[in-house]
Amino acid sequence: MTFVYLLVFGFAATAVLGLITSWIDRKVTARVQYRVGPPFLQPIIDIVKLLGKETVIPAGASKRTFLIAPVIGISGVIAVATLLWVNQFFSEGFMGDWIVAIYLLAIPSLSIILGGFASRNPLASLGASREMKLVIAYELPFILAALVPVINAHSIRLSVIIDSQAGGVFAGNISGILALTVAILCVQAKLALVPFDIPEAETEITGGALIEYSGPGLAIFKLMKNMLFFVLPFFLIILFFGGLRLNGINILWTVLEYVGIVAIITVIRNTNPRVRIDQAVRFFWGPITLIAVVAVVLALKGL
């Protein structure tokens, strides 16, 4: 019964906060472009409207895989969100839950790849191919960056990583600053936001891997991305800022930390052009991986 409660809480809280984060991002983007932007409830309205539309399955598509792909993706987000909430408020994680979180965060991208190829649409297959290359590019530096807090805390348990920062956050160390910078850029790619929106590129492949999705299937994918927009910054706050601290003045610092990460992602999105997939791969395998390796070495030296 406790597990079901945590699962429901993990989904509901993450969905609401993810939709709010999405609205903030869209509102700020609109203001940057001298537009008014959407009303507060617009992200919810978008999801509800899609839920009421028909699901069209393209001819020749692998029907079961096409339909189950979005369910797999959102299940991964719900699972990792529940894991993070449990460690944040109940300290009831398990040994190696850091590894599980890393694996679960890869599931949404894999579900997009699965759905794109299952649709048998040439543009969707191209988008899925780009998504696959992007995953291969950013996963290594992302794991290296997430490894820095593990080294500093001497544990692969998330609750221990949170408790280890009671006397000082890892983002205050040189290794932590470098790792956090790398992690934010990898999060940008995980969310497929400019300049790493190559798999979806509306002006090139009109939505990419999701071009054939409509109705509830597309709604689930959009909700998954909105939830991921909250989960990824939440994960970084746990790793580098000691989690959400909701007591006294720490509430303000927690809000500023979260808003700061979202603001950086939004600024990067609105100030950079889209890059090619080969440029993205060289970027992540080159300077970003090098910086991540330097951060790991500094962490091993206690810096």
Q: Give the C-alpha Rg.
A: 19 Å
Helix-strand pattern, N to C?
A: HHHHHHHHHHHH
Determine the strand fraction and express it as a percent band.
under 5%
> Could you report the average pLDDT, rounded to the nearest whole number?
89
Helix content: over 70%
**Unreliable parts:** none
How many H/I helices? 12
Structural class: mainly alpha
Q: What is the domain total for the residues?
A: 1
- For the secondary structure, the number of strands is 0
The gross shape turns out to be globular
Largest sheet, in brief, is:
none
Q: N- to C-terminal separation?
A: 44 Å
Descriptive report:
It is a single chain. Helices cover 73% and strands 0% of the residues. It is mainly α and 303 residues long. It has one domain (2-300). Helix 3 (63-89) runs antiparallel to helix 4 (97-104), helix 3 (63-89) packs antiparallel against helix 5 and helix 5 (107-118) runs antiparallel to helix 6 (122-153). The chain is globular and about 55 Å long. The mean pLDDT is 89.
Key attributes of the depicted protein:
303 residues; mainly alpha
Summarize the entry for a quick read.
The protein has 303 residues and is mainly α. The chain has helices spanning 2-32, 42-51, 63-89, 97-104, 107-118, 122-153, 158-163, 174-190, 202-205, 215-241, 250-271, 277-300.
Write the layout of secondary structure elements.
Elements lengths: L1 H31 L9 H10 L11 H27 L7 H8 L2 H12 L3 H32 L4 H6 L10 H17 L11 H4 L9 H27 L8 H22 L5 H24 L3
